[in-house]
Amino acid sequence: MLISTVRLIPSQEEVCDLLRETDAMREGHFEFPNGQHSEHYFQMPLAMRYHDNARVLNVALSRKLRMEADVLAVLPDCAIVAPASGGIPVAFGVRAALDADQILWAEKNEGRNEGRYYFRQYLDVKGLKCILVDDIVRSGKVINDMVKLIHEAGGEVIAIGSLVHFNDAHMDIGDIPYYSVLDVDSKFHTFEDCPLCKAGEHPEKVWA
pLDDT band at residue 114, thresholds of 50, 70 and 90? Predict the structure, then answer.
């Protein structure tokens, strides 16, 4: 899908078309591993595997982030930070578009604190101005965890951005500015209150 390079922020409809063409966005009836149901399913790596698509999405996000005065004030002396692994392609693309100084990513701990994010040993975040990015924000939990991690490590989050944002996500980010390329109104339901289940539509089980 070709989007004009002159208008660097595509419309919501154009983003949806791009994601549909790559099967990164599917519409139907889906059951997630946690048992919740939704009418939308996103797998952003299916879109990000194509360089031109990744560039369109990442440049669009970078343009939105540039609207923030605090972002312009610190460029290029800042870090683009992302959770592994979905946020890493976004971080690389946004860093290139903003000409930021460096990229950092946090990984999930598989030891005693399984499920918590951490920075690798000797990675010094103290004093860094950070722009936090991710590919998709569903519940808001990952963003909340990442903001806490960066602050505990001595960094400062000056802006947050994602390619896709579920409008009912709950982010505890205070007054940190947040930008997204696509906003989705899709809701998550339990089996008992899922309208699609009540209508007799069988869900497709998805991995994540």
Answer: low
